[in-house]
Amino acid sequence: MTAWFLSLISLICLIAVHAYWRKKYILLLTKNTEFKGHEKHSRLVKDLGMTDIFDNMPEGILVTNSKRKIDFANPAFCKMFGLSENPSGKTVMEAIRIHQANELIDQLETKSSVTNEEFMLPNLDQRFLQSNGVAIRGKNGKNRGAILVFHDITRIKMLENHRQEFVANVSHELRTPLSIIKGYVETLIDAETNAESNTHKFLKKIENHSDRLTFLIEDILTLSQLESGGIALEQNHVNIYELTESIFDSLKEMAEKKGIHLKNQVAKEFVMMADNRRMFQALNNLIENGIKYGGKCVCVSSEINEEKIVICVQDDGPGIPVESCERIFERFYRVDKARSREIGGTGLGLSIVKHVTQLHNGTARVESSPGNGACFYLAFPNVKSENNRV
Ligand code: ADP
To answer: pTM for the whole thing?
Structure first.
């Protein structure tokens, strides 16, 4: 009898505990998956114990609902956009009148997230913001709004501008004394009739090194112009076959010295919209590297389809280790520092290639493995097929 009574009590306790936890679980689920309007957003923020965190965050937080109205904006957001009152209930355009922010909300109606979108606030003190956002979707995939986080990157932008200005000014100031040194060295070499003398050898060394310094300064200046975005592309119809031929012509002597065969496999009628001078610079750097670091042959080829235009520069040299392929387009990155220094590179060639390609809305990449040569690909969108043709 006692056993039966104890079993009954245990059963009742179990049912009570189960009912209690089931209720809690359902409450938790609805709180975290359903976003229905301002009340619930605020409750969510409170429930999560995030109010203090959001209030004291330096990043601006904005939560909108399915009607594109603001449900929540933290104090940092209001400060960033100069709002004196809580913007809840207004649309983004009504509250802050920034088209780019409104476009982010537009994008999040179709995309699940947006990352690292940068824009400038159009007030006098020119503030730069970077934004990341995610879309809020209901159980049925229906759009229920968006959450955006804004970072003030004005200071980073300012420091980056100072760095670029500093590099550009220093390089510019170095040009004049260097060209004077080179002028005097050339005069002294001409005056030294004995080519076997130490004086002649030393002067030749000074000339070589001042040439290297000149190339380095020119590359730094080019890169700082490309990075600052201060270059306006002069887009024209560029025949890539003819461009390759002219680069081969300028590098003929270098290739002959190393016994390297240059092969142009680009279709003769291949024309694309590009800046001729910049494209020359990028392809020249790739072909020159193929000669410097390659084996017996450097081949340039091309491919065009509905979506893409691809130019490929391939060599049969020692290749690049796989772990270096990801870093090779970085400034001053070298696979073998001693070898590159001996050959006389600046370490900026591929970085210039990357920037020129990006300016043309393209991407640069390399495929290589040790012992199998290297293949550099420049891929561009085929925007207007009537302008780009084979
Ligand atoms: P550098 O002036 O040193 O040539 P780059 O930016 O042009 O600078 O190239 C970076 C590094 O990438 C080079 O130092 C070299 O180690 C490697 N590299 C570039 N092209 C090739 C290639 N075709 N084959 C093997 N290694 C290469």
So the answer is: 0.71
